[in-house]
Amino acid sequence: MAAATGFHLRRSGLVTSREGRTTRWLAVLAAGIGLMSPGLALAANAADQLYERTLMTAADARCQLFEHTVGSALDAARAQARGATLRSGATQADVEALEQRARAKAGQASCRSKDMTTAADRVRSAFEAYATLQRMHYPGDLSAWHAERGVSATIPLWRLSQPSAFGPDRLIFGLVSRSNAVSAVAAFADGAQPYAARLVMRDPARTQGPYLNLRGGAGLSFKVAPRSASQVFNAETREQAPVTLLPNGAKTGMGFRFPVAAAEAISLLDPREAVTIEFTFTGRDGRDAVRKAYIEVGDFAAGRAFLR
């Protein structure tokens, strides 16, 4: 992947020799970035788009090029391109190396140069309309995230959500209301009520990458790390969920809120993998019984950036 990515970026003019300095890449970026729509299908050249968007995000951080809304829109598009690059077969190391090159290149340019101003104008033109969008849909390999920027001061609403069915039971997982609380709301077909819930996901600090289809299966349950390579976030609260957060058609459900740190932890995962939500019940024999639901990581990071 690394070699192929380098070829595409050099061919497009976005990676240049030392002799080319910074002028050439800014001129090429300024000419091409206006053609780059945030809604464009990323599969065509996800790595090039990740490079461009990382470069301009880094330039914005250093030079304060954009208003907050445009900068946030650009960052959301960068996160989406990052996910698409990983789904195309790049390794985490490939992506991190590409991002490092983009940030280094951004650091070489003068904030007041004509080429920087032109590139910033192109980005601003491309992303101003995107910044005003209130809803976004992020399809994944098996599931999808739905983002809503609208909030209510009094009614809890899903801002970023993904539904899931596990057996006869149903779940919605994501971020709720102004606080963007990491939450899960589940409706159990038999009326059972869990006394606890856990959010289980791969621990990047203890692994070298995602565990994908190691047992030859196609479902989300085959895209989770073994317990020995996972981190666990226990739910901090448990309560009857408000009607506005229930899965479609459900009359009642249990809501669980997880630590704030869980959102950042999910954002660091590979979009192709899944996280597990475990609901614990008291069994008839006094032993705990566990039901598991799975959520695809997908473009969680992009959706979270979109909300900002």
Q: Can you walk through the features of this model?
A:
There is one protein chain. With 308 residues, the protein is of the alpha+beta class. It has two domains: 2-133, no CATH class; 137-307, Immunoglobulin-like (Sandwich), CATH 2.60.40. Helix content is 35%, strand content 23%. Helix 3 runs antiparallel to helix 4 (68-87).
Would you give the CATH topology of the largest domain? Immunoglobulin-like
* Oligomeric state as shown: single chain
| Number of E-state strands | 11
CATH architecture of the largest domain: Sandwich
- Main beta sheet, described? 7 strands, antiparallel
Tally of discrete structural domains: 2
What shape does the CA trace take? globular
Spatial order of strands in the largest sheet: 1-2-3-4-5-9-8
| Strand portion | 15-25%
CATH class of the largest domain: Mainly Beta
Query: Which residue ranges are poorly predicted, with pLDDT under 50 across at least 5 consecutive positions?
Result: 1-25, 30-44
| Secondary-structure element order, N to C | HHHHHHEEEEEEEEEHEEH
Rg result = 21 Å
